[in-house]
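assembly run, all chains below
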Amino acid sequence: MLKRIPPLLGPELLATLRAMGHGDEIVIADANFPAEFLGPTAIRADGISATDMLEAILTLMPLDDFVEEAAIGMAVVGDPDARQPIYDLFEDIVRRHEPGMGFATIERFAFYERARQAAAIVQTGESRLYGNIILKKGVIRPDAA
Amino acid sequence: MLKRIPPLLGPELLATLRAMGHGDEIVIADANFPAEFLGPTAIRADGISATDMLEAILTLMPLDDFVEEAAIGMAVVGDPDARQPIYDLFEDIVRRHEPGMGFATIERFAFYERARQAAAIVQTGESRLYGNIILKKGVIRPDAA
Amino acid sequence: MLKRIPPLLGPELLATLRAMGHGDEIVIADANFPAEFLGPTAIRADGISATDMLEAILTLMPLDDFVEEAAIGMAVVGDPDARQPIYDLFEDIVRRHEPGMGFATIERFAFYERARQAAAIVQTGESRLYGNIILKKGVIRPDAA
Amino acid sequence: MLKRIPPLLGPELLATLRAMGHGDEIVIADANFPAEFLGPTAIRADGISATDMLEAILTLMPLDDFVEEAAIGMAVVGDPDARQPIYDLFEDIVRRHEPGMGFATIERFAFYERARQAAAIVQTGESRLYGNIILKKGVIRPDAA
Amino acid sequence: MLKRIPPLLGPELLATLRAMGHGDEIVIADANFPAEFLGPTAIRADGISATDMLEAILTLMPLDDFVEEAAIGMAVVGDPDARQPIYDLFEDIVRRHEPGMGFATIERFAFYERARQAAAIVQTGESRLYGNIILKKGVIRPDAA
Amino acid sequence: MLKRIPPLLGPELLATLRAMGHGDEIVIADANFPAEFLGPTAIRADGISATDMLEAILTLMPLDDFVEEAAIGMAVVGDPDARQPIYDLFEDIVRRHEPGMGFATIERFAFYERARQAAAIVQTGESRLYGNIILKKGVIRPDAA
Amino acid sequence: MLKRIPPLLGPELLATLRAMGHGDEIVIADANFPAEFLGPTAIRADGISATDMLEAILTLMPLDDFVEEAAIGMAVVGDPDARQPIYDLFEDIVRRHEPGMGFATIERFAFYERARQAAAIVQTGESRLYGNIILKKGVIRPDAA
Amino acid sequence: MLKRIPPLLGPELLATLRAMGHGDEIVIADANFPAEFLGPTAIRADGISATDMLEAILTLMPLDDFVEEAAIGMAVVGDPDARQPIYDLFEDIVRRHEPGMGFATIERFAFYERARQAAAIVQTGESRLYGNIILKKGVIRPDAA
Amino acid sequence: MLKRIPPLLGPELLATLRAMGHGDEIVIADANFPAEFLGPTAIRADGISATDMLEAILTLMPLDDFVEEAAIGMAVVGDPDARQPIYDLFEDIVRRHEPGMGFATIERFAFYERARQAAAIVQTGESRLYGNIILKKGVIRPDAA
Amino acid sequence: MLKRIPPLLGPELLATLRAMGHGDEIVIADANFPAEFLGPTAIRADGISATDMLEAILTLMPLDDFVEEAAIGMAVVGDPDARQPIYDLFEDIVRRHEPGMGFATIERFAFYERARQAAAIVQTGESRLYGNIILKKGVIRPDAA
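ok done. output:
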């Protein structure tokens, strides 16, 4: 336990967030996501919801304002325009930490391909379906150091 | 995620519980416990309470009925007879899974020494002080296989 | 040994099943299958039949209902329509655990190619020829957690 | 699978038996034995009985005729003279492969200490209690090569 | 770079501080300290002063209030009562972060022995002699979580 | 040393033969063959002839009867029809263990390419030129187990 | 600490510079650069400016005079002709150590691609944006040895 | 130190030469050659000249007489027909050990590409430019064993 | 294969002999010796006799003339004065390579203890009992370099 | 190759010297010294004399002025007062780099024991007997930084 650090973030996850640079991505995955065999390091967070994890990560990590979308979810299989309740929760958390930013979705297998390039995948215990989100890290500018 | 398995138990913890044999011990540690540098493998469970973890583990793992005490907590430093609220919660969970078994405590540094011999230490996010417990694994008898 | 867990599933196999996510595949291979040099981790189960292993795995692991076929065997070399006795046994076990699902076969070298992408290959001691089966993991839905 | 080799013996176990020399010991352990954290390499044989494993190993490995006892079981805790049914089965198999040799037992914790020095521990799925046996390897003499 | 985290703390050091528990110690060492061959992991911080590193670490890590002295320097060789200028700087930083706590020194080889048990040694570029300090981690209480 | 096992086969080679499955290949290479940097694990057998090694391996390992040629040598460079004395020795040993099977050769660089895919290469001390042979493992059928 | 060696260069970085040969490249990266997941080894230099690191490295390492540009920065995103203040500082340091050499820039993603081939990436704590530079190592001629 | 072995050849280099087979190549590189990041294992020989190393290696290793050129140097950049003094020294040593063989050169980047496939690169302290040579190993024939 | 090097000595054994210094010991062990689990690296030489291996090693390695006995065998168990035929063969080979040196024996378990400190143990296929010998390496003097 | 760095010092040795701190020791060993199996990392410098290596190391590394003797050789076996020619060479080099410091010797096995605690052992090709020296690293004071 440390001061200022959300307790959900253990040593390995904290080191990963600190090691990431501008444009690197991290995935928060739900309990059914195929995280362990996809390629990137999988960091376990069994029993933790994806929304609590998102809240904890965005407390420390800035999102990328060089791109259109820095927070990307997985679209419903077979119904790309369907809206899942967890999407709104994700979007609220993102907007609270990064005013002006939004939340978009991409198709399931496109999501997998992008996740393969991530710095890490955090496998939460999120039991709600489609509880997955990719986050693209931004920069901290000199005056914000 | 698997059927029958409490979702709190991730791959590494599940493998550890399965690999343990008669008399091997596992420690559920609170968020302040010095787990990572004590010797045994530390398995992270940040954000999870010690009582939820105890509940999950005892769903699968039998306690040792060859010894007097198979569930051991840490006594309050400087006041060995003091009773902590979490002791009662630990005791209730143990009794529910293993009728007739109890809960005892040992002194802080004796607890550390015993923890050094454990198969693993599960570092939870338990924020209540003295939220630590050692569990000694029992046998599964032929007719219970 | 643990409560609720079929004893055939050792620590490494249990961890693998727990680590797999939606769409990941595991192969149960017979004693002649070239498992160790194909790429994925090979988990030994010498002396165990493929049918007993299938029974044990499906006790814990759901199959994927997003796809047509989630349980796939190897077709007879040179006679793709031939029916092997072990196919029926596989199919019965699958149907008992996953009502409504079936069993299909693919050609030998196509089977090898698909096995190369598996999370793991369980090499049993199955001595009956064509005693191989690929299993695609499904999701556990929120209400089934 | 190989000709002449009992199929229960997988690659790692076969290599271990071959690598052992005069006086080295191997332990066949039951399903409750604390094999994985004792020190020596643990070789899994989940689902296999200790007696089938003993039969397979003695098909290839000679016992040591330089010592009094080359096959040693674990005595019943608290009743060192008690006879377990599996003792007779162990003894029969030993005598069939090594005429003139017997079977003795030592106390539980002495057994653990001796097992710590073994070349390996084979963890079977033996569910009968006290299904453990230490085997001391003998020599193959020039005329038997 | 992350929000709230002093930029001097890189991924490995941050993970170490997070992994440490109650009573674990970390050493901030000067540029001449024999850090790399003493035993604990050495974390490089070439070019950084010991006082800047102390400031950064105490921003996140609480000191142990269960013991008399939680911040310990190295006494001057051959003159244990001599006061070095850097001692005052260390003491000021400690007191600012942990009101009521002090700073003590121990003899050079006693310092080495204690450092051998540390969780890690941070080798700074501190060029002032005696620029070494051991820090003992404290707890974060439930209401401070 | 073990009963029933040709003494030339050490632990690593024995494990490799046991681990190989239907269609996997192993190379017996002469002393000049570029075995160590080709890719597959190289198993040393310095001082042993290729013919003695072939004899030992075929005592345990069945050849593949699903293919035309399961034992393949290297053709003479620049004279593909030339017959080397060691070819006849190879062929005799193969036929003695696998009645009805033959021995063919392929061009030097084709041999290298195929050897790159082998499970292992056994580097013998064979000093006769062209003392190389690839062996393709067969199946053991249920009634032969 | 060593004589003649700038103290900013720790053991790993010093070894890397020494191991590099003619044409090998090293990257000095700012605090926001995605260094850790790009491929090459990342060497941490948190808290150190890119200009101080450049000064230290060029004290020991010659630049390549076989090519047009041996010191390459990252162009401003969206404005390739824009001049950043740190460019001038980089150029001054380069010219002081390597009279007659200059400083050029390439586009952000071209910079990343080239950095993927580097011998190492030194991640400094440089907080000024565009504080990145690739250095191509030159030769030391016989008379300069 | 061993009898018969040139003392310049240390354990790792000796093992490499012994492990190489017909057609495998080793590179003797000068002090400026980019050996460590090219791919093959780099063996250090700081302070040793390329000609002394060539002499030592050819004392033990035969060159390949199946090819036109078994000893290949690097041509002068921009002047492929230029003759360097060290070429003559290389050629003399080659001819003394392998009567009838010569010495050729290839272009710098072609040399690098070929070096990437070598069994190892020996990085000497050769300070003369173009002090690099690739050696292709030959066979030892039965009567020469 | 190399010129001047006895072909029985493969890469690893050659490197070990070269790496050994004054007073280091190597063990040539027979096929029944417990070499693999004793501690030192075991180098396989299955199928090779201990006397051929001794001949090969002494061709390169000098024995230690600072001590009384630099070649030590294992005495017969229970009959320490008994003479084994292989002792004479060992002694002849030693005397041929190192005129004036002899051969002594020590008790079985004393031999094991000494072997635990060896640089390596070469496990031959020697089938004659007591075919074990410890060799202590000597120096090569300047004039013999 | 780097500017200011003696070319004899390769990447690993340079990193070791840089990593060493006050009081850490390094051994320069002759070609017969048992360096590889003593415990510390052995760094090869085959073909280099101990005196050239000493010259190179002392160009960068200060000796310890907190102790009586910071440069220690090995005394002649059986004649501790005997003077070896190389002792004078060692002493001259030490005095040139560290005016006022001397050179002492200790008995052979005491030398070995001390060498076991060293940061590393540099195995040179020194063929003169007793060409061994232990060096204890000193500090670089602030004004010398």
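Chains C and E do not touch (no CB pair under 8 Å).

The radius of gyration of chain C is 14 Å.

not gonna interpret more than that til we talk
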